[in-house]
Each structure stands twice: as C-alpha cells, then as structure tokens.
Amino acid sequence: MIYLILISALSGAVVTVLLQFLLLYRRNTEPISRTVQYVKIAPSSSLRDYLNNQQAEAGPQEAGPAAHGAGSSPKQSPAPHEPETCNFLNAIFLFLFRELRDTPMVRHWITKKIKVEFEELLQTKTAGRLLEGLSLRDISLGNSLPVFKTARLMEPTPRNEDGMPEELNFEVDLEYNGGFHLAIDVELVFGKSAYLFVKMRRVVGRLRLQFTRVPFSHWSFTFLEDPLVDFEVRSQFEGRPLPQLTSIIVNQLKRVIKKKHTLPNYKIRYKPFFPVQVQTQLETACTLDLLFIFGSYDKEMHVHCTVELSSQQWKEKTRSSIKQ
Predict the structure, then answer these.
(1) Per-residue three-class SS string for 256-318
(2) Among 71-80, 188-197, 210-219, where is mean pLDDT lowest?
(3) Which Pfam families does the entry link to (predicted)?
C-alpha cells in the first residue's frame, strides 16, 4: 500500500512538470520591443527663441517707431544680439589651467607648437639672413588664461528645416594679461650665439569663434581685426643688446598673428570636438586605395567622389589656413 502511494505521488509530480514544460514551450514568445535609436536632434524652446532673435530683429527695425504704438505688449522680449557675460567659462578654464598648466602633456603640446613657429620663422627671408637656428631654453605659461569679456551671437545663423543651426558664429571680446614668455637660444649665421627673451604682455581684440558643418564639421577662431598686442622682447649678444634681432622677432610675431589668425585668414581645427577629416597620405606602389567616408548627416546635398589616375607620383601640399 505504501509503495502504491509513493508511485502515485511520484507519477503526479512528473506529469505536473511535463505539463508545465509543454505549456511554456508551446506558448508563442513575445518579441522584445526595440527602442528608436536614431532620432533627429531638436533644440529646446528657449534655445530656439535665442536663435530666432536674429531673424526677428530685422522686422521691428524697418518698421520704425510706428511699430511701438498702443498695440505693443507691455512684456518686452530680450534684446537680440545683446552681449552676454562669460564669467562661468572663465572660471572653468581657470580651474583647468591651474590643474593642467605644469603637466608634461600640456607642456609637450605647447613646445611642439612653438617649434613649428620656429621653423616657419627660419624660412623667412629677413630672419634667414641673420638666424641659423633656434632652440627653446625655457617656457612659462604665465599666471592666467585669456579672459572672455563678453560674447554675442553674430548673424546670420543658417538653419535647416528642423531649426538646427548649420553654423554658429560668436563675437567674443578677449583680453590677456597672463605674462606668457619664452627664453630662446639663437644661433647666428656667423657662428655666434645670442640669448632672446620674449614675453606677451597684453592682447586685446575682438575674436570670431565659429562652429560649422560646411563643408565638414570643424571649428575655428580668428580675430575680426588686427588686435592690440604688446610684446616685451630682450636680446643679448656677448653682454650687449642686439636691436636687429629684437626687431626681427617682434615683426615676425605680429606678422604671424595677421597672416594666420586675423580675418580673412583662419585655421581649420578639429580637436577636441570633431574627428580629424583629413586622412594621412599612405605610401603605396602600383595600387589604388579608395577611402570613402560618409557621415550621419541627412541627405541635404549630393555626395560624390572623383578618381584620377596618373603615371607620375601624386604630391599634395598640406594647407593649414584658408581664406574666406
């Protein structure tokens, strides 16, 4: 009798488990709902109003004083193009400058940029008659960064059908009194050496800060007009000052600012906001390599590529600045 009860209980348990498995596997599984991964970016209502202030400004100005009659609302909207303070940016940059100023990464990057300017200086005709080589002895980044006094959104701001800007241009009032300076050893053409000290006392000017997607995503900054730049340059040759060397260095520094960083000239920049669009040239022989890059933009324009073949070696000169 006991065996019969145990067999019945065991059989019931097995049958119950089998029925549960059958019910689970015979039921159609519901597919997992997939979320939308790619959506169009849309500005918030406040940001859209900020960008629309440019287009709304032209109408009231042309209408004249008659447009401000009895029908005008007592609530006044913010004046378009009103300069904005940048104190929060200055505070953030100052904090980062304090933490990163003396790090090897920053000093290596600054030193590399300065050596590029040295090479260009030695290639000029005036400097080539007197200078044979330049070597950096010491560098100091000063005690502060440039200060952004005010910023203003410049017009026009091209936008697509979704209201997103294709290009942003800001006019920024900049002032610098940080005391950035260099100590340089100069090799002269007649086999002698000299010492050169260059300090940037003050820089004041109006800067254009641009972010654009045309023809590809990049950013740039350049002065709208010649800035006010005050350099302190001291030279020493065998215990005596060398005025010729001082004059060459001051003129070259001002020429670099005008030719590279003053409109209509500016330098296209990618880092740290965008990936580098210009690919490094690959050394190949008897082969043809095609690299086609297509971004995630909407099809707002026709994208095409051209291929040219030649029996001669292709040479391309890199361009560091462009003109509008």
Answers:
(1) HHHHHHECCEECCECCCCCCCCCCCCCCCCCCCCCCCCCCCCCCCCCCCCCCCCCCCCCCCCC
(2) 71-80
(3) PDZD8_N
286-315 residue pLDDT tens: 666 766 655 555 555 566 677 777 777 766
Q: Positive or negative, the Cα torsion across 78, 224, 100, 102?
A: negative
CA distance 98 to 145: 10
pLDDT of 321 > 70? The answer is: no
Return the closest-CA partner of residue 205 out of 235, 171, 239, 182: 171
Is the pTM above the cut of 0.90? no
Dihedral angle sign, alpha carbons of residues 54, 55, 59, 60: negative
Give the end-to-end CA distance of the chain in Å, rounded to a whole number.
Answer: 102
The token pair at 104 is: 């090897």
Tokens 């790090």 locate to 103
In the three-class reduction of DSSP (H, G, I as helix; E, B as strand; rest coil), residue 232 is classed as strand
Cβ atoms < 10 Å from Cβ of 172: 21
CA angle 181, 182, 184 (to 5 degrees): 160
Q: What's the Cα-to-Cα distance from 104 to each of 101, 110, 183, 287, rounded to whole Å?
A: 9, 10, 18, 41
Among residues 227, 85, 58, which one has the least CA distance to residue 155? 58
Nearest CA to 130 out of 199, 196, 229, 200 is that of: 196
CA distance 78 to 248: 49
pLDDT mean over 245-255: 83
How is the chain split among helix, strand and coil, in percent rounded to 5?
Answer: 30, 25, 40
Distance between alpha carbon 263 and the CA centroid of its chain, in Å? 17
**Which residue type is seen at 62?**
E
